[in-house]
Design a protein that fits this description.
Layout (H helix, E strand, L loop, with lengths): L17 E9 L3 H14 L7 E6 L4 H7 L5 H10 L2 E6 L13 H8 L4 E7 L9 E7 L9 E5 L5 E5 L5 H24 L10 E6 L7 H14 L2 H4 L3 E6 H10 L6 E4 L1 H12 L11 E3 L4 E3 L18 H14 L2 H17 L13 H9 L3
Parallel strand pairs: 1-2, 1-3, 3-12, 5-10, 8-9, 8-10
Antiparallel strand pairs: 4-5, 4-11, 6-7, 11-12
């Protein structure tokens, strides 16, 4: 659980009782797990006084193969004009260059102004490594600006280059969000009975400025400047730094020392997926793509073509991403109900998909979780 988000788009859950959620299944098992998000929203206790409408929207590589478009303008228009939040399933991006194709989720983040990818990772069962951290990843730049070129060297061999872009403005925004998340997590630790590995808030800035002194150097400098110039607000947050390669080492050796981690796009992507190994599977790790006025919940796993159509995809990452979306929309009580039901399922350990060592189906896990409301 993020422990109450910091970008509430509604002043209170009573101010808007009927919400419209965009559903973007995408590719592969995205079509199997997105219905889990819809199911938990529909089954939330009536006492929460929330109602949901849904609209299914197109995006994905398979759509591109059929139509030549991976992210239709209509999808973006409906999200902006009609939806209060959204869920994105998965995308089957090819590993080789395909003329005219670019990732729809990357494009969606840019078009919707979703500059942060927020991924909480928390151990629940005794078999997990002790971990309770949030990885805050800058979502709009770094190597993911997709500005690449290939040319021939003087000897005729091919050379490929890619732009790594780090800007002061984008870094300032992501650093501010990281410090705010650290403060909000600490507030919950102090005012609730939720268990935690941490007694005080901290943010670890992850970079490689010892080699990339200009790009990562700027990221490091701006993150530190935001902290130092806002001591009145962020002074209680401990500022830390970690070179990215040693960050990976420490994350697996002693994950319990990290509270909030902030990183440029590529490092954050790698760290987020690696952190999933600490809690058993990508199938249980949620994320949210967040801007100032919108949030899209997105499970961390991919399209998983090897298990597509078998009915055994783990829906927990999507269900937790649904709760995370609700947190950023300002509906913490509803989110908490979902988190509690998921945690109870995991602790009991009887109904679980094969990736967690069980033999249950996707639908059986969904039914077990919503049955706990």
């Amino acid at each position: 659980m993020l422990s109450r988000s910091v970008r509430h788009f509604s002043s209170s859950s009573a101010s808007l009782k009927k919400l419209k959620i965009g559903l973007i299944p995408g590719d592969g098992i995205g079509r199997e797990v997105i219905p889990a998000g819809q199911a938990v929203l529909e089954k939330l206790p009536k006492s929460l006084d929330l109602q949901f409408d849904f609209v299914t929207l197109d995006a994905g590589y398979e759509l591109f193969q059929r139509t030549g478009t991976a992210l239709p303008e209509k999808t973006v228009e409906v999200l902006k004009s009609e939806c209060d939040g959204a869920l994105f399933g998965a995308v089957s991006s090819p590993s080789v260059k395909v003329a005219g194709y670019s990732s729809p989720i990357v494009a969606l983040r840019k078009k919707m102004g979703l500059y942060a990818n927020v991924r909480p990772v928390k151990s629940v069962t005794s078999s997990d490594k002790p971990v309770d951290m949030v990885i805050v990843r800058e979502n709009t730049e770094d190597l993911y600006v997709k500005e690449e070129r290939t040319y021939n060297a003087e000897d005729g061999s091919r050379v490929a280059e890619a732009i790594k872009r780090i800007s002061e403005n984008a870094t300032s925004k992501i650093a501010t969000m990281a410090y705010e998340i650290a403060l909000s997590r600490q507030k919950i630790r102090e005012t609730s009975n939720l268990s935690s590995l941490h007694s005080k808030p901290s943010v670890t800035v992850t970079h490689k400025s010892n080699v990339l002194s200009a790009s990562d150097g700027l990221f490091r400098e701006v993150c530190k400047n935001v902290w130092e110039s806002n001591k009145d607000k962020f002074g209680s947050v401990e500022y830390k730094e970690q070179i990215v390669d040693s960050m990976v080492y420490r994350m697996f050796r002693e994950p319990e020392v990290f509270d909030v981690v902030v990183a440029p796009n590529l490092y954050g992507d790698i760290l987020s997926d690696g952190a999933a190994a600490l809690v058993g599977s990508l199938g249980v790790v949620p994320s949210a793509n967040v801007g100032d006025n919108f949030a899209i919940g997105e499970p961390c796993h991919g399209s998983a073509p090897d298990i597509e159509g078998k009915g055994i995809s783990n829906p927990i990452a999507t269900i937790r991403s649904t709760a995370l979306m609700l947190e950023f929309m300002g509906y913490q009580e509803a989110a908490a109900k979902i988190y509690e039901a998921v945690d109870a399922n995991l602790v009991e350990g009887k109904v679980k998909t094969p990736d967690l060592g069980g033999n249950s189906t996707t639908q059986q896990v969904i039914d077990d979780i919503v049955g706990r409301f």
